[in-house]
Amino acid sequence: xxxxxxxxxxxxxxxxxxxxxxxxxxxxxxxxxxxxxxxxxxxxxxxxxxxxxxxxxxxxxxxxxxxxxxxxxxxxxxxxxxxxxxxxxxxxxxxxxxxxxxxxxxxxxxxxxxxxxxxxxxxxxxxxxxxxxxxxxxxxxxxxxxxxxxxxxxxxxxxxxxxxxxxxxxxxxxxxxxxxxxxxxxxxxxxxxxxxxxxxxxxxxxxxxxxxxxxxxxxxxxxxxxxxxxxxxxxxxxxxxxxxxxxxxxxxxxxxxxxxxxxxxxxxxxxxxxxxxxxxxxxxxxxxxxxxxxxxxxxxxxxxxxxxxxxxxxxxxxxxxxxxxxxxxxxxxxxxxxxxxxxxxxxxxxxxxxxxxxxxxxxxxxxxxxxxxxxxxxxxxxxxxxxxxxxxxxxxxxxxxxxxxxxxxxxxxx
Length: 414
Prior knowledge:
Elements: H1 7-13, E1 19-23, H2 30-37, E2 43-46, H3 50-58, H4 62-68, E3 77-82, H5 89-100, E4 105-111, H6 115-120, E5 129-133, H7 175-181, H8 185-188, H9 192-215, H10 220-232, H11 240-247, H12 251-263, E6 267-270, E7 286-289, H13 292-298, H14 305-310, H15 312-331, E8 335-340, E9 346-353, E10 356-362, H16 374-382, E11 390-394, E12 400-403, E13 406-410
Parallel strand pairs: 1-4, 1-5, 2-3, 3-4, 10-11, 11-13
Antiparallel strand pairs: 6-7, 8-9, 9-10, 12-13
Helix pairs in contact: 4-5, 7-13, 9-13, 10-13
């Protein structure tokens, strides 16, 4: 069992007398982590099992009866329901039981899609629940060998509790492997020869079948064309008109499909930075797939180092975006943006944490120079009251000061 950063915070929060809801894409390790943290006598109900799911669909009242039959103890009895989005009525049953006795049960509900819950108006137990999210691995969980040689200089640090290092970290990978295979726990822990096949299976079977079951997409062939195109365009500014022309799908349907990917935690948007004095800025968001390995497979590309080396720059930029986004979600404070002018000047990413703003450029270079920082310097000039320092994330081997306000960091120091 490998260590997860969220394991420490989650262990503490599970002791709080509330209902706990955990969401995240399939294969991010939600069930594995919860099963490790929950007591052995936890009542476990797995709704990904068709027989179990059909049982509670036909007889939803049985959930309450099973919970009431659990022995009464001095401590709360944990009840873990996996893939709870399959039966939204479970939420009403949990509320009924929780309101009748807040100390007898500790409900933990886990799901990989918010689509059905949102469309059915499911009761997410406001005022009674903690909501948790689990994401693919971060750099701190899946370390780089080079990071041992450098101090923590990150513009957005994520640290283990008490500064401790994990006792069981995931295997060390180089940058090319991360860009080729992504950061899903099961993929990282697998043999290299199996990774491409596992990612293709996830995309072709699991991902598509899950979407088919959850969304009831009418034109499945059109949706597959969209999924392929969306994966190819991951990291780019959304242009619904262009996507509709390329795929032959109407713009309203395209927008609905993107919302579906977000509801299933398969992708997320990075909005344009709006707090700027400049007038010629684009305002359309970018869209990113949640994992590079899944993105590569869904785009019909071979998940391999060779694929990455053919055009590494855009994939490296996506890797940085994913790392920053995951950290911001775990930290629970701050937003991720980008900025681009209509004449093409761009700041790749902007971290906004309250009044603190940090611009970041991503460069596929081992030798960053002052020219690489020109857009950062302009941004710092335009936002001198909130942005004091900028960063270039690249492949240099040591941190470097490019300008008194610009630091170039190796990717493994991010």
